[in-house]
Amino acid sequence: MERAPGTGGAERTGFGGWARRYGETATLGTAVAALPVGAVLWWTGTPGPADAVWFLGTLAGLVPALVMVAGELRRGRTGVDVIAVLALVGTPLVGEYLAGALIAVMFLGGRRLEESARRRATRDLRALMERSPRLARRRVGDRLVEVTPADVVPGDLLMVGPGEAVPVDGRVESAEAVLDESALTGESARVEHARGAMVSSGTVNAGAAFTMRATAVEADSAWARLVLLARRAGAENAPVVRLADRYAAWFVPLTLLVAGAAWAWSGSAVRAVAVLVVATPCPLLLAAPVAIVSGLSRAARLGVVVRDGGALERLGRARTVLLDKTGTLTGGRPRVVAVVPVAGASTAEVLRWAAAAEQLSPHVLARALVEEAGARGLRPPVPERVVEEPGRGVTATVDGRPVLVGRFPAGAPVPEAVRRVEHRATLDGAAVVWVVVDGDPLGAVLLGDPPRPDAPRTLRRLRSVGITRLVMLTGDREAPAREVAAVLGLDAVRAEQSPADKVAAVRAERKRAGTVMVGDGINDAPALAAADVGVAMGARGAGAASEAADIVLTTDRVDRLADAVTIAVRTRRIAVQSALGGMLLSLVAMGAAALGWLPPAAGALLQEGIDLLVILNALRALRVGRAVRSPVDPTTERMLRRFAAEHDELRGVVEAVREAADRLSTAREGARAPAAGGGGVDTAADAVAAVRRVDRLLEDRLLPHEYAEEHELYPALAGVLGGAEATATMSRAHAEIERLARRVRTHLDLLGPDAGEFPPEQVVDLRAVLYGLHTVLRMHFAQEEESYFSMIPTDPVPTDPASPGPGR
């Protein structure tokens, strides 16, 4: 494997590098110190020594400026630094020593920031290298011999233990292998590979030990290609042309032309010097850095860490955003999206049995089941004799009864109810975890990775600030990727993308417009490095993604991306406005100086005034833009947390509505008849009982929640969102929910208290009401979570003891 140096070759070593680095520090320190020392001397009535000190500061900037400009000229490049050199030479000649010292500080400070950014131009690959496979177990006869991956040759028989990384690409020789491929694909779900399937290096064994036959050497395996992609992609991006240099392309020649013409026309060198003084590049040297630094500071307060000013400037010019799915647009962890009971069980019962058996499992799906049970207030019993079979599930004894949680038992007859659940899971793009008690299927839990609640609003905000194209790049399958894209309204989807595919997609998009890539996994690192701007979800993402990125979102919220782009666009606009405004004023002053109306001393004073205006305007980047949402007050935040927690608790009520509608559809007359392989058939009485249960849940839990939202939460949010009209559509949804709930109650009143089944004339309407109520509730909950609950800060505020919080 070709080894990538830890620093990307950016750091200078040896005495030359040491001398250069500390020499730059010394000159900058001298220039900075000269300003206050000279000011003290001037205020104490000794202007001569003050001018001498400021002159020393000017020289501290002049010498490195001459060296840098000479180097640029040798390479055939010119920039705003030419004006800086002329100004540093001209200011002492006309006695404006303070102006010279100020220009020296700005020049040296800007160069120091650029040098720091340049040392990071080649991306740091240490995190990738730390994840590289380091061990291979070669099977030689009856022995296992430990070797390095570099020693493996195609044809070697290797053993990969639990938790170990696959050392090279190969083919599975065991019955099956269960792998965590998130490092390469970004997807958290475990992938099962049957005998003969190909596996990639860098993936991790998430099941039992398995044997594999090597098909490639280390240097040709997937992980080596990932590292090489990151190196090459990071090296592609040339240093960004500074904003000041772009304007200097015409400002420098114009300045020299005006100064030369003034000298030639008047025969006075003083006029030429006066032109140079008022043309000092302070508006250029100050405007962009002050605005960019202000923008960086503003972004940092929101949990957005920007590596350098160039990244912020590029972000402000970008028009295309490419986003990974898992962990970026979605939460990155499986969540329970539905609990589907069969055989007459309730959703709470199914989830309780599932959580009980899975409590001791470290599997990502097990954590989702246990967390969901806790959110719904369930207290699962402690399991006994727990056995976990990788790729199949968990068996345990719970309350003295055998429980299986995982795949539906292979070879067992499949009841009609089981087929219905499997079909629903396929349509929803969800994973299915079956709960089998005493050998009979009790129900299933559907798990998925839904979009983050703040993702839709984030994408709308991105479009509002100038992003014209939004594309998903994901290693996930086509069906779930398109499901998420449809919900979010993306312009294009590229699914089943390898790291190389993602890099190719980024390169293709860069040909059209400035491109931002957003991701969180190690597999995203090459694409982040290849984009104009790489943005990493750093709160829970992989370290390699953060290292390869220009911008890191330190909080686990994708809406910070919209904040970052908003700040970048506004900062760049202010920087350009300040630079152009300052240059326009300087041009007017240059004309006056060329005509002899503005002597050098007065010109220097005028230039200082222009500089002050430029700085004050650039500092506006510190303020909160209108598109960056202000935080809610603590009282409203506590209220948002309370209702968000109630949403979690009410998911069971929403599912009960769907369950009752399903039972109306599948109910049959007569007693329960056992189905082949377990499971039963819902009777008409079961359907009536389910509807009565839904009615109680609506009256006792759901409608009080909606009433409290309408009369407590919405008035509090009106001030934050700009008036009561902002919540008007949500209020209309409350009215529709109440109307449908009353319609369910009316059907029960028509049925009477003792009836055992709904007559046909009621079933059609009641079933439509229940399915409609389920749809409205899901939509309403999603809208509130997206529009309101996504405003909750990452760090919780102290909870008022008098106000019920998430833990009640």
What does this molecule look like?
The structure is a single chain. This protein folds into six domains: 15-122; 127-235, Calcium-transporting ATPase, cytoplasmic transduction domain A (Distorted Sandwich); 237-303 and 555-629, no CATH class; 304-331 and 452-554, HAD superfamily/HAD-like (Rossmann fold, 3-Layer(aba) Sandwich); 335-448, Calcium-transporting ATPase, cytoplasmic domain N (3-Layer(aba) Sandwich); 634-791. Helix content is 55%, strand content 13%. The strands form four sheets. Strands 10-22-21-20-11-18-19 form a seven-stranded mixed sheet, with helices on both faces. The longest helix is centred in the C-terminal third of the chain and has 38 residues, at 684-721. The two termini are 55 Å apart.
Trace the largest sheet across and list its strands: 10-22-21-20-11-18-19
- Distance between the ends: 55 Å
Question: Level of helix content?
Answer: 55-70%
Helix vs. strand class: alpha+beta
Give the helix tally.
26
Beta-strand content estimate:
5-15%
Radius of gyration: 34 Å
> What's the domain count?
6
Number of extended strands: 22
Spans where pLDDT lies below 50 across 5 or more residues: 1-19, 117-127, 233-241, 669-679, 795-808
Taking the sheet with the most strands, its summary is: 7 strands, mixed
Q: On the 0-100 scale, what is the average pLDDT? A: 78
> What is the overall shape?
elongated
